[in-house]
């Protein structure tokens, strides 16, 4: 079976869906953060597949940007997570609704 | 001296300011002394003005002092200005003179009261406003004074405001007066729209252009008189005055003798050029006055509170003055106003002296035998009583007799009958008061008997001065029939318009009728005194004869007028107010205001639900939003 563009995009879509579901349903902040990473990577996968398909390098450059931003985000996100843990002793996002109206 | 006219009201005002700001924490002597001195200074200036007026020719005794342009709105212009003519001069002298004595007396009477300084501030303010009232050269300045004395009466009657009863007496006086003031205010509006001016001197010639009995003039007069019934406690607005006895006694004296209640009479006489054009209005004035005189006198027959007897006596005497106004005898009205100021001031201060000596006891049922213990008070009180009863030779006789004579002469025989009956009641109840208070055995407690003492000099000296005035004050107006000359009448004549004024007895050949009437009124007074003597001075004199039964019960309860007012006017008003409060105010107005608030809050509550603070909810919405946007995008591309 020939692996075609559609397969990559489908995998990307499935990964994105799993990530999105994780962000929406899981209560643990770390898992949510991981799910966000999953969504970012699914998008990266789609970018690369499309870049190959179109024989264009621009999308690959964008992937590098995304990777950099994701790395930075993880660094900052983890720092926030640690201080939340210290402050609250919990990673449950439902417990962090102090900003509700 | 007349250029310094403005000083007359300025002095008491200065007293108010000094006592309010500069003399805080000073001794009673300084506070009371300054206040008394200010009023005395006004009296001296007034006296100077009086002699200057006296020196002028009779026809030019009219001096106006324009102070400043006060209100200019559209066509309406009002000057603040003072007027000195024979009428206002008489009033200035009475107000400042009697008030000065009352001030001095108050230093003794109010000794030790915690509100001592406050009392004198109010007292000075009262005199200030009364002077504005009598000195104003137009109706608006008069109205300012008119309202001012109303305010001060409220402050002074409710002076001991911690006592609920006294505070509400002050309120009653104020509200009753406001009802009358409404009439006065309407009268001023009507005067303005009719004549285009509110200045007395400018209205007078204009009024002459109207025919006698003109509707608009009658309307103005009746409205003015409505104001007068409130201020001067006439039927039907008299009930505040007896209640006003709750205030300190010098206040009663001030209100009853020199200020406030005399304002209505003064206003009518001041407006004589209008009243003389309206026989209908004058008839109303005469009848209200006459009926009030009798009505109040009958109530006075059975009252047991020393001050209440005097209060009803004032209502009754004011009725006499209005009776005089109503029959066109304006000079007689002012004459009686003056003599009344002397003897009523004396009687009130005398009753204050008795109350002072009796440790604040006001019930004449527990007095008696004070003659020997308080000789000065007794003798001065006796002179006042004789004067008010109408015994010849004393001030009250001349003025009251002139009123009765003028009433008869103007063919109001029924009113004369009412007047003479009232005079009989006056003699009776005044001597009843005198006998019960000063004669017989002491009926109070041992402690009271031990405490009874003559009042200090500060109080007795004003009594003596007023007693002298009560005795000789009538000689300025001895009727021609008695071979005298009515100087008072001549003095006031230039103020009075030529219409409808009944002139003195000089036009009549032999004044037989006048002699007869005079004899009748003296006889009536003497019978009243003898009757009081046999009832209250004989062996059966005492408390039993003061009991209640039948007619006496009706009188004792003042014909239930207060209760009738309460049932017919007050209670329904309260009920209507409650309905309005519940449905209109709390229901509609509060409902609308709160409704707006509640609506906004509930909308906010709806929007608030979105702000959960839970990150995932936001993410869901973001996702849904993206889906919707994408859907719209695709739809638009495909569509």
Keywords:
heterodimer, A: 101 residues, mainly alpha, 3 helices, B: 639 residues, 25 helices, 3% strand
What does this structure look like?
The complex is a heterodimer of chains A (101) and B (639). With 101 residues, chain A is mainly alpha-helical. In chain A, 77% of the residues lie in helices and 0% in strands. Chain A has three helices and no strands. In chain A, helix 1 (5-25) packs antiparallel against helix 2 and helix 2 (29-54) runs antiparallel to helix 3 (58-88). The longest helix of chain A is centred in the C-terminal third of the chain and has 31 residues, at 58-88. Chain A is elongated and about 50 Å long. With 639 residues, chain B is mainly alpha-helical. Chain B contains 25 helices and two strands. A two-stranded antiparallel ribbon of chain B has the order 1-2. In chain B, a hairpin with a 2-residue loop joins strand 1 (63-73) and strand 2. In chain B, 51% of the residues are buried. Mean pLDDT of chain B is 83; it is low at 499-508. The chains are: A mainly alpha (101), B mainly alpha (639). Chain A binds chain B through residues 20, 23-25, 32, 93-94, 96-101, and chain B through 607-616, 619-620, 623.
Number of strands of chain A: 0
> In one word, what is the shape of chain A?
elongated
The unreliable regions of chain A are: none
Cross-sheet strand order for the largest sheet of chain B = 1-2
Topology overview:
The complex is a heterodimer of chains A (101) and B (639).
Chain A: H1 5-25, H2 29-54, H3 58-88
Chain B: H1 7-22, H2 28-55, E1 63-73, E2 76-84, H3 86-109, H4 116-135, H5 139-157, H6 164-195, H7 200-207, H8 215-231, H9 240-243, H10 249-258, H11 261-270, H12 272-275, H13 279-300, H14 306-326, H15 330-357, H16 375-389, H17 395-409, H18 413-438, H19 446-451, H20 457-472, H21 487-492, H22 512-536, H23 551-556, H24 561-608, H25 615-638
Antiparallel strand pairs in B: 1-2
Helix pairs in contact in B: 1-2, 1-4, 2-3, 2-4, 3-4, 3-10, 3-15, 3-20, 4-5, 5-6, 6-8, 8-11, 8-13, 10-15, 11-14, 11-15, 13-14, 13-18, 14-15, 14-17, 14-18, 15-16, 15-17, 15-20, 16-18, 16-20, 17-18, 17-22, 18-22
């Amino acid at each position: 079976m020939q692996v075609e563009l559609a397969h990559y995009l489908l995998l990307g879509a499935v990964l994105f869906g799993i990530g999105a579901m994780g962000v929406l349903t899981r209560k643990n902040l770390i898992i949510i953060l991981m799910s966000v990473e999953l969504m970012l990577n699914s998008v990266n996968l789609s970018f690369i597949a499309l870049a190959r398909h179109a024989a264009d390098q621009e999308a690959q450059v964008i992937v590098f940007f995304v990777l950099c931003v994701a790395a930075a985000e993880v660094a900052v996100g983890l720092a926030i997570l640690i201080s939340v843990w210290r402050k609250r002793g919990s990673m449950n996002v439902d417990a962090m609704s102090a900003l509700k109206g | 001296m007349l250029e310094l006219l403005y000083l007359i009201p300025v002095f008491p005002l200065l007293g108010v300011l000094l006592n309010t700001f500069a003399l805080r924490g000073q001794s009673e002597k300084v506070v009371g002394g300054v206040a008394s001195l200010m009023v005395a200074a006004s009296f001296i200036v007034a006296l100077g003005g009086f002699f200057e007026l006296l020196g002028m020719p009779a026809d030019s005794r009219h001096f106006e002092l324009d102070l400043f342009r006060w209100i200019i709105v559209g066509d309406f212009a009002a000057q603040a200005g003072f007027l000195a003519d024979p009428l206002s001069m008489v009033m200035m002298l009475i107000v400042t003179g009697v008030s000065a004595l009352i001030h001095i007396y108050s230093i003794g009477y109010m000794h030790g009261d915690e509100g001592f300084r406050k009392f004198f501030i109010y007292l000075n303010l009262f005199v200030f406003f009364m002077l504005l009232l009598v000195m104003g050269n137009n109706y608006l300045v008069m109205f300012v004074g008119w309202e001012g004395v109303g305010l001060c009466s409220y402050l002074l009657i409710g002076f001991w405001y911690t006592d609920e009863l006294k505070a509400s007496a002050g309120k009653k006086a104020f509200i009753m007066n406001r009802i009358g003031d409404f009439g006065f205010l309407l009268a001023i509006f009507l005067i303005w729209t009719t004549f285009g001016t509110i200045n007395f001197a400018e209205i007078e010639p204009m009024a002459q252009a109207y025919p006698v009995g003109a509707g608009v003039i009658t309307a103005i007069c009746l409205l003015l008189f409505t104001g007068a019934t409130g201020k001067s406690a006439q039927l039907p607005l008299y009930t505040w005055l007896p209640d006003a006895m709750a205030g300190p006694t010098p206040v009663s004296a001030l209100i009853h003798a020199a200020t406030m209640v005399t304002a209505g009479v003064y206003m009518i006489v001041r407006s004589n050029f209008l009243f003389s054009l309206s026989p209908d209005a004058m008839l109303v004035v005469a009848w209200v006055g006459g009926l009030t005189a009798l009505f109040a006198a009958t109530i006075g027959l059975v009252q047991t509170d020393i001050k209440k007897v005097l209060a009803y006596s004032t209502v009754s005497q004011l009725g006499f003055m209005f009776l005089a106004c109503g029959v066109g005898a304006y000079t007689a009205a002012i004459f009686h106003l003056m003599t009344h100021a002397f003897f009523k001031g004396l009687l009130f201060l005398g009753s204050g002296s008795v109350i002072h000596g009796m440790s604040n006891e006001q019930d004449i049922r527990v007095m008696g035998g004070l003659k020997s213990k308080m000789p000065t008070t007794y003798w001065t009180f006796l002179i006042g009583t004789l004067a008010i009863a109408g015994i010849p030779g004393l001030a009250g006789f001349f003025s009251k007799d002139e009123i009765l004579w003028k009433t008869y002469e103007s063919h109001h025989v029924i009113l004369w009958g009412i007047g003479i009956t009232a005079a009989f009641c006056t003699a009776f109840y005044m001597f009843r008061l005198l006998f019960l208070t000063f004669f017989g055995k002491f009926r109070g407690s041992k402690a009271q008997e031990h405490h009874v003492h003559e009042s200090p000099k500060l109080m007795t000296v004003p009594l003596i001065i007023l007693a002298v005035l009560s005795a000789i004050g009538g000689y300025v107006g001895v009727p021609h029939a008695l071979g005298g000359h009515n100087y008072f009448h001549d003095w006031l004549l230039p103020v009075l318009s030529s219409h409808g004024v009944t002139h003195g007895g000089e036009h009549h050949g032999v004044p037989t009728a006048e002699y007869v009437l005079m004899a009748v009124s003296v006889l009536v007074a003497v019978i009243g005194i003898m009757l009081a003597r046999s009832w209250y001075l004989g062996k059966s004199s005492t408390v039993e004869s003061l009991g209640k039964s039948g007619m006496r019960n009706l009188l004792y309860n003042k014909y239930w007028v207060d209760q009738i007012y309460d049932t017919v006017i007050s209670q329904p008003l309260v009920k209507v107010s409650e309905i309005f409060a519940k449905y209109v105010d709390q229901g509609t107005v509060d409902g609308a205001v709160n409704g707006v608030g509640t609506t906004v809050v509930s909308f906010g509550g709806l929007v608030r639900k979105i702000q959960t603070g839970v990150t995932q909810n936001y993410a869901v919405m973001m996702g849904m939003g993206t889906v919707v946007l994408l859907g719209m995008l695709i739809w638009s591309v495909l569509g």
